[in-house]
Amino acid sequence: MGGMDADHADPADLEALRAAFDVDSCEPPLGWEAVRAYEAERGIVLPEPYRTFVAEVCDGSASGPPDYGLLPLVEMPEDWGDDRPQRVLAKPFPLTVPWLWEGDEGDPRQPEEIDEAKSQVFDHGSIVLGTDGCGMYWHLIVTGPHRGHIWNISGEGAAPFGAEFGFTTGSPGFAGWVKHWAAHEPWFDAV
Q1: Where does the Knr4/Smi1-like domain lie (predicted)?
Q2: CA 84 to chain centre
Q3: C-beta of residue 148 within 8 angstroms of C-beta of residue 4
């Protein structure tokens, strides 16, 4: 997985994360007790370095990334909608490769099966880090084979962030995603 370690926080990554965020626009960190309570309640362990970041550095920031700011751990984007299914973080995120469902007439599944699969992409095994607007959400995968990776999920499809997936030159994972943003690189700079 490109050297990404979702179980241990690299001190250099934490330093880069501290440097990337404007301290004045950060929400106070949650602390370890609150992070562990959140994890226990949902049956997950947040991937590093995000876990240490929200416990010790910053629980959300108005300055981003993404464009509309990094959401606090327990919040959802304002445009997410109240009529959506319950999010289940302990159920594995179902994808390991991009899926462009808009315009995919070749999918052999029934429309109900496709809708259920899309619902799982949006609501299983991830936390929502924030939005770039227009229904483009950034998710941190917390359960499943892609744990620790960042995915961009929108009405058109879902794609992982990281150079090995072909859409960007950025490194995978939360630290790579933030570093790419802090360098003022466009998200999809390899297309």
Answers
A1: 33-153
A2: 18
A3: yes
Q: Which CATH fold topology does 11-182 show?
A: SMI1/KNR4-like (3.40.1580)
| Strand duo 126-131 + 157-160: pairing | unpaired
Q: Token pair 């609501």 is at which residue?
A: 123
pLDDT band at residue 115 under the 50/70/90 scheme? confident
Instruction: Put residue 146 in one of left, alpha, beta given phi > 0 → left and psi -120 to 50 → alpha.
Output: alpha
Looking at the DSSP bridge assignments, the partners of residue 159 are 152
- Best CA proximity match to 159, nearest among 184, 177, 178, 181: 177
pLDDT tens per residue, range 58-89? 999 998 899 899 999 999 998 888 888 789 99
Query: Phi and psi dihedrals of 131, rounded to 5?
Result: -135, 150
- For the chain, which residues make up each domain, given as ranges? 11-182
Q: Which residue is it, tokens 């700079």?
A: 189
| Cβ count near 14 (within 10 Å) | 17
Q: Name the least confident of 21-30, 100-109, 112-121.
A: 100-109
Burial (CB count <10 Å: 0-12, 13-18, 19+), residue 131: buried
- Report the length, in residues, of the chain: 191
Cα–Cα nearest to 1, from 112, 161, 154: 161
